[in-house]
Amino acid sequence: MEFVEFIKTPKVDNVVLHRPFHPPVEGTLCLTGHHLILSSRKTNSEELWLLHSNIDAIEKKFVGAVGYLTIKCKNFMVIKLDIPGMEECLNIASSIELLSNLESVTLTYPFFYCPKFEILEDGWHAFLAENEFARLNSEDWRLTFVNKNFQVCPSYPPVLVVPKSVDDETVIAAAGFRHGGRFPVLSYVHASQEIDIRRKATEKTVILRSSQPLTGANNKRCREDEKLVNAILGMGKRGYIIDTRSQNAAMTAKSKGGGFETEAHYPQWRRVHKPLERYGVLQDSLCKLVEATYDNSCSMDKWMSRLESSGWLSHVKEVLTTACLVAQCVDRESSSVLVHGTDGLDSTLQVTSLAQVILDPDCRTVRGFEALLEREWIQAGHPFASRCAKSAFSPGKHKFTGPVFLCFLDCVWQIYQQFPCSFEFNEQFLVMLFENAYASQFGTFLCNNESERHHLKLKDKTYSLWTFINRPQILQTYMNPLHQHNTAVIWPSVAPQSLTLWCKVYQRWEVGKSSEREGSWNEILRIQQHDKELKERTGQLRKQLADLQKEALEKGLICE
Asked: Quick one: which of 367, 343, 382, 365 has its CA closest to 422?
């Protein structure tokens, strides 16, 4: 299919662009297969270069012969175009609607993008499962390749980590007893520092993730699944199963063929229900939040009321609370944890990945966080294509859409706010990840799982976001100037007073940048640069002093 079929009017002159924090600009509007471009007539420069895939909704209005388009983007930016001529305006709107909703993923921009920068590292091979496992350095676990053809579990990657004492036949049988074949796999191994000091021995606990067991109304059991789950714990050890559903929801799932682990068959495990809302509820909550943000007629009382009624910060609080519970079980109680909800694709990944941010200082570095996203979100099968297909402006209900990943990033930002010196990356890094998850020239967040990516040969036909980000000149823009390496576990407060609205995401296009805060950051960077220069100068002077002392000794001018 040719893009020309979608573009009825490729170019319109005398179009006026209105966008946040910029004066109106008149220029020529051009439509390509993947971009909406507006070039200024005065400066002959590109004032707007917008991916069609970033467009969430479009509204039309006509006054006389002039058409007015309001374009609402997935990153919450709203721009307006004044287009002379009703026919031209209708054609442009129709083309944008078609090009922003392409059915085939192979027609999207990542499959056509050709980078102009030098490729220093292939991001597709930066975080291979085999390499990440080698860093684990544990004799209790092994790699399994039972899913190499994606037949055991379509949403899992080909390579997974399971207990060394469990063979592949047991793993395959356990997969048949789990929703969608998502059998328990290793997420994280933790060595408690307090226990190491007290006992002078390394005692490791782990975090696992899976989907719900298919016990059903008749309380079916699977001895292979029991063997796999119980193999995690040593003699006399206890573990926790954190179920991200309410007890009533778990019982309802059981009546429909799903269920939960019974104490009789998993005697060493204690089940705890920590209900987290599913993606549909998160979507409704985000829509209410963004709607309130763009209502400029709100009084203070009404704004606070609408913020509370959206429920967004409550969802953030509950996810953070559950992640802290998992981290507490692992670090303070030296107990391993298995996390699952219904399918293990959303809230499960939020909790396991956030717990690692709390526990593991490596996950608070740039590369460590990238590895975490690869391991716990992309390779773990979070359905980015479905969840991020639409954002907060799109009209109507979308069955599988929900800001699960955005909620996770919001939780990370809340921790970053409380521990600004413990993260190697800055806030802009998190904002960049949010924007690329919804619209990008890179293939990292395309598709719903590794099976789909493999089928489309994504690694051969698109470029990884990490290829671009990890270049030194780009990476430095995402570095936190306040970072100091902190090996300790960090415990965020989840009190309502400690959680705030992430303005740089939800209000960026309404409130804009804080000149005072920007000035503070610039001053910090200036001081750091000056400090670096002084240290370098100090080193040079010390070397000169040492050389002069040596020369003076040789000439007998001074004594040792």
From this structure: 365
